[in-house]
Specification:
By secondary structure, this protein is α+β, with helices and mostly antiparallel strands. 20% of the residues lie in helices and 29% in strands. It is built from 17 helices and 52 strands. The strands form 13 sheets. Strands 28, 29, 30, 31, 32, 33 and 34 form a seven-stranded mixed β-sheet that branches. A five-stranded parallel β-sheet has the order 4-1-5-6-9, with helices on both faces. Strands 16-15-14-13-25 form a five-stranded antiparallel β-sheet. Among the domains are: 172 residues, Rossmann fold; 210 residues, no CATH class; 142 residues, no CATH class. The protein is elongated. α7 packs antiparallel against α8.
């Protein structure tokens, strides 16, 4: 039957609410059924739609708000060509299903009712098993009323066992379309489904090919994105490691350790874990009591091992009493006293602007006394105070001593039971008076009556017989400390504390005294706890045998009997006699072999020769300047280059030699000397001394480059003996910019267009001649940087600071924690003594291209050199296990104390 435009719906689906899901499925199948094209033609000019069974009415989908249920259903029935009854045990008992069948039959379309049985049995013997509603089982009379005459409705078995059968469904389709041949529909439908399957497979294959291409591109892009992400993480971690934020750097890399690109980050992690000291290990080494910083907080580790938060206190001086209980923290605005055993705050007082940076001592009965000064508004006006801390620590008071323009002296008496000061009396213009400050209690000092000093006695002991009068038990011989008005109460040091020489017992720990004596304890400064921030322990070093060095061949090069002609420099045409001036042993005077190239071992012979001939290197300082002579055998005869400069240019006395040893740069003279021709080939003396910040030769010796004014100046090597002209100047380079008080510690040429610089404040950067910076970072933990030493091939760099050293790779990764040889770690020698080039025992600091550091440093005898080796370190074992044992990253929500406990409790 052709489509009849008079019907809105192909079929009305009647069902019980219990059969809702089956009805919905049947509606979906009918509406989406595609009729084979061969069956769409009905007659000439009459065709069916491709989807001839759409739409179907199902009341749940056609609900119109505001319309009564009977009207809505009646409208659906009137607009439908067929009625499909979903027959089941539920619908057989449904009043609404029966009414829908009756209403549709009364429209005169009783022949267009199709029963689809989904469960139960039609015409069942058992009423409970009946699936057909009564309106289908009995006929209607002419008035549309249900009779007792049985009917034989058309029904199709679509119960669950046959519901997936395509042929059964096609029976429903054929009935609704009034097709003459079911077999033709089945055959045409099968053909159409096969064609559709072929098309689907073809589309699937094409989609697969397209997807494969897209997937390959996606995986390639994802791989590139992952590599970029790793490179960014590595770059940021490089900065973290340099700034002693090891935990943060390792956390950045941790997500990539289990991925496809683990090989890019694992070597970095293993290297860092090879030298980074875990917080737990650092904490275990702390003495009790100790002050420490963690996550920005100041914490006290008391004698019992408990932690206390002292945040808000920034001590400028730390004093611990002899009994180890009273911990005095002197700030700029307040003095606080804590019990170092329990962490309890005992007392506090305002500093009132007084500088408590003079002597401190403790009386036998336990009174702590700290001397301080308040400088007055007038020139030379000075107020002197004493800070007293009672034995129990609860009483803290600054005590005014005197307002004077001239302090004659101070003394202690009675085994620190009294403090005496002498100053001009305000009552008379000339006499002095003495005040007694008793340390038995915190009280104002009392003037000692009758003790007046005349000006004639000014050079004598200002205290006269006071010690014997007031402290007869004391056997002291009037010790005193003379101070001028320009230096009242000098800050304490190991050599300027008269209280100790007078027999007073020193306090147990005083940060100023400890610094003066170059000794460190747990209280000299708060220790900053962070993974890797501690100095590498002595166990990371090993002793080695000093290599033997052959005797230098230079002593007889220019004897008096065969003076060497001067071929260039000062006095050209004159002669040079070896040792013609007395060479002193100070200010780095030298007589012997020339300096070795930067990065070459000072213990290896060979660079005292050039072209097979020995080289004499001699310079000395005198009142008017410095003289330099460099001599060697030239064309079979000894010859020299000489130069003299005045001392008013304030240039450093550093020497720099090129890789093969051919060129020597003398910074004080601003001169580059060619040993091949013994001629000066460059002179930088026309540049102001503060402009020449750092220089280096390129490895192939074709160029000399200097950092000056925030840029690089390049000088091109010419023929032998010819002057090197300035070739180019780079744009401004970020790492070369200097702020107030900053200096350039070193410049290294990795090749002709690749450079590394280090600034005194710890900024290290790598860049090229165009000013493009590859990386830059601040290296922490070693104090201001004073020098830079590369390995021979520039694979590694040693940064030398005032407090320690650190090794850096050329790609910017820190290879060590702060370093100091065992002699320094044990307090036997300060670091600067190991690096002092003016000492008789010349230093030896060598870094090889494997990252091993060799350093000579005396222990007990300053002249006895001991060679220590710090080998390159890397962590072995499973990276995950190493990370768990080393990295501490507690949640930011934890307090500093709880966070530290979580780092040290396992």
């Amino acid at each position: 039957m052709p489509d009849e435009p008079g019907y809105k719906y192909r079929a009305f689906i009647s069902y019980s609410r219990n059969d809702r899901e089956v009805a919905k499925r049947l509606q979906r199948l009918l509406e989406y059924f595609v009729l084979p094209s061969a069956l769409r033609v009905v007659s000439a000019g009459v065709t069916r739609n491709a989807r001839p069974l759409a739409p179907c009415f199902r009341d749940e989908d056609e609900l119109v708000p505001g319309q009564g249920l009977p009207d809505r259903i009646r409208h659906g029935l009137e607009s439908s060509e067929y009625l499909i009854v979903v027959c089941s045990r539920s619908s057989a008992k449904s009043e609404w299903v029966e009414r829908e069948i009756l209403d549709f039959g009364r429209l005169g379309r009783g022949d267009n009712i199709l029963a689809v049985v989904i469960d139960g049995t039609p015409h069942a013997q058992n009423a409970d098993d009946e699936s057909l509603p009564r309106a289908l089982r009995f006929q209607l009379d002419s008035d549309g009323q249900l009779t007792e005459q049985r009917a034989e409705p058309l029904w199709i078995d679509w119960r669950e066992s046959t519901r997936s059968d395509r042929v059964t469904f096609l029976r429903i389709v054929a009935a609704l379309l009034s097709l003459r041949s079911l077999d033709d529909l089945i055959r045409r439908d099968a053909q159409a489904r096969r064609r559709a399957q072929v098309i689907r497979l073809s589309l699937a294959a094409a989609t697969l090919v397209l997807f494969s291409a897209v997937a390959v591109a996606w995986f390639r892009e994802r791989n590139t994105a992952e590599e970029r992400s790793i490179q960014q993480a590595v770059s940021l971690s490089r900065t973290d490691f340099a700034d002693d934020r090891v935990d943060a750097g390792l956390q950045r890399l941790q997500p990539f350790l289990d991925g496809r690109h683990a090989g890019l980050v694992e070597p970095v992690v293993r290297n860092v874990l090879g030298w980074a000291v875990p917080i737990q290990q650092q904490f275990a080494r702390l003495t009790r009591p100790s002050l420490l910083r963690f996550r920005g907080a100041l914490l006290l580790l008391d004698q019992n091992g408990s932690l206390h938060d002292l945040s808000g206190i920034e001590p400028v001086r730390i004093i611990l009493s002899r009994d180890g209980r009273r911990l005095v923290l002197i700030q700029n605005v307040q003095v606080s006293v804590f019990d170092a055993g329990t962490g309890e705050r005992l007392g506090q007082a305002d500093t009132k602007g007084i500088h408590w940076d003079a002597q401190a001592f403790e009386s036998p009965d336990g009174l702590l006394v700290v001397l301080g000064t308040f400088y007055g508004a007038t020139n030379g006006g000075t107020n002197h105070f004493a800070l007293g801390v009672s034995k129990n620590g609860t009483s803290v008071a600054p005590v005014f001593l005197s307002l004077i323009l001239e302090l004659r002296g101070i003394a202690v008496a009675g085994n620190c039971q009294g403090l005496l000061i002498a100053h001009p009396s305000g009552l008379t213009p000339n006499p002095f008076e003495s005040l007694r400050f008793t340390t038995e209690a915190i009280e104002a000092p009392q003037a000692i009556v009758g003790e007046i000093f005349s000006p004639a006695e000014e050079t004598a002991d200002p205290f006269g017989s006071i010690l014997q009068q007031d402290f007869p038990e004391s056997q002291l011989i009037h010790p005193h400390h003379d101070v001028t008005s320009a230096e009242p109460f000098k800050p304490v040091s190991a050599s300027t504390n008269p209280l100790l020489s007078a027999g007073c017992a020193d306090v147990k720990s005083d940060s100023l005294a400890l610094h003066a004596r170059e000794v460190t304890t747990g209280l000299s400064d708060p220790v900053t706890l962070a993974t890797g921030s501690d100095f590498e322990p002595e166990s990371h070093w090993a002793r080695d045998i000093m290599p033997t060095k052959s005797a230098s061949p230079v002593p007889g090069l220019c004897p008096e009997s065969a003076a060497c002609p001067v071929v260039d420099g000062r006095g050209s045409g004159a002669t040079h006699t070896q040792g013609e001036q007395q060479v002193n042993t100070f200010m780095d005077d030298r007589y012997g072999a020339p300096p070795v190239p930067r990065g070459a071992s000072a213990l290896v012979a060979g660079f005292d020769m050039f072209a097979g001939n020995p080289v004499l290197f001699e310079y000395y300082h005198h009142n008017s300047g410095t003289d330099l002579a460099v001599c060697r055998t030239l064309d079979g005869r000894p010859a020299c280059y000489e130069e003299s400069v005045t001392m008013d240019e304030h240039r450093t006395d550093d020497f720099l030699r090129s890789r093969t040893g051919r060129y020597i740069f003398w910074k004080m003279g601003g001169t580059v000397i060619d040993l091949q021709s013994l001629h000066k080939v460059m002179n930088l003396r026309e540049l102001p001394s503060d402009q020449i910040q750092a220089c280096d030769f390129t490895p192939d010796e074709s160029r000399f480059v200097c950092a000056a004014g925030g840029r690089l100046a390049f000088y091109q090597a010419g023929s032998a003996g010819a002057f090197w002209p300035q070739s180019t100047t780079s744009p401004s380079v970020g790492p070369l910019q200097l702020g107030s008080g900053q200096k350039m510690a070193g410049l290294l040429a990795l090749d002709n267009d690749d450079f590394i610089s280090a600034r005194s404040d710890g900024l290290v950067g790598r860049f090229d001649s165009s000013g493009s910076v590859q990386w830059q970072l601040h290296v922490a933990g070693i104090g201001p940087i004073s020098d830079v030493l590369p390995s021979p091939e520039r694979a590694f760099i040693l940064l030398i600071g005032q407090r320690g050293m650190r090794i850096l790779s050329r790609d910017g990764f820190v290879q060590s924690a702060p370093l100091a040889p065992p002699a320094v770690l044990a307090g036997k020698r300060p670091l600067e003594a190991c690096l002092d080039r003016s000492a008789d025992q010349k230093p030896s600091v060598d870094l090889d291209d494997a990252g091993n550091l060799h350093m000579m440093c005396g222990e007990n005898d300053p002249q006895a050199g001991v060679l220590f080796v710090r080998p390159a370190r890397t962590a072995e074992g499973a990276v995950g296990d190493l990370m768990r044992g080393s990295v501490c990253a507690p949640p930011l929500t934890l307090s500093p104390i709880d966070a530290l406990k979580s780092c040290t409790s396992h």
